[in-house]
């Protein structure tokens, strides 16, 4: 399949691989393997030694950390074009997070040798990797501030708007990425029961509507006002 070659892949435009030369991309392409994952399958677990990075071709993965009380905190949702595991490979540390598919996924696994060789020989690639890591750090800072300054209700409302803006809607107008109630609670950092209670309160107030696990936004303006503290 020609379009699964890195040098012909549109997806690399979204990540640090765009800074590689055609020659370097060919080498990466010859060494990579493509993997399909079903919803719920792990890409890797926290504490695992990673021998390479994963480039997401399709689907969404949740990156989470297990807290002392045994509850997952979802730190990020990684989607099409993102490279997962860069930090662990470059720092030569075991994975700080777990990565689990929240929808069916297709990923390319790139062995760390390809990454490390290019890091040493291509300053543009090194700079791109640094930029992406800096962006991840900025996002992590925002998550910390949100956790400490916003109420659980505000964080749930914000999560719905985030899901709409980043993953869009399905043909019936529901959020295209369906997260379980537990995943929603793990994104906002609260107990699952609290998330369920807030969802039903939002429903009663006409802010959202639901169908099984699916959630649709009914009144985005009101949700946004809630996030802004009005």
Give a structural overview.
α5 packs across α6 and α6 crosses α7. The chain is of the alpha+beta class. The radius of gyration is 19 Å and the shape is elongated. β9 and β10 form a beta hairpin. It is built from eight helices and ten strands. The longest helix has 27 residues. 33% of the residues are buried.
Descriptive key words:
230 residues; 4-stranded antiparallel β-sheet; 8 helices; alpha+beta; 10 strands; single chain
SSE map:
Blueprint: H1 22-31, E1 33-37, E2 42-44, E3 52-58, E4 61-66, E5 72-78, E6 83-84, H2 86-91, E7 98-101, E8 105-111, H3 112-121, H4 123-149, H5 152-167, H6 181-188, H7 192-204, E9 208-211, E10 214-217, H8 220-227
Antiparallel strand pairs: 1-8, 2-7, 3-6, 3-8, 4-5, 4-7, 9-10
Largest sheet: 4 strands, antiparallel
β-strand amount: 15-25%
The succession of helices and strands, N to C, reads HEEEEEEHEEHHHHHEEH
**Which shape, going by the Cα principal axes?**
elongated
Summary of the model, kept short:
The chain has 230 residues and is an alpha+beta fold. It has helices at 22-31, 86-91, 112-121, 123-149, 152-167, 181-188, 192-204, 220-227, and strands at 33-37, 42-44, 52-58, 61-66, 72-78, 83-84, 98-101, 105-111, 208-211, 214-217. The radius of gyration is 19 Å and the shape is elongated.
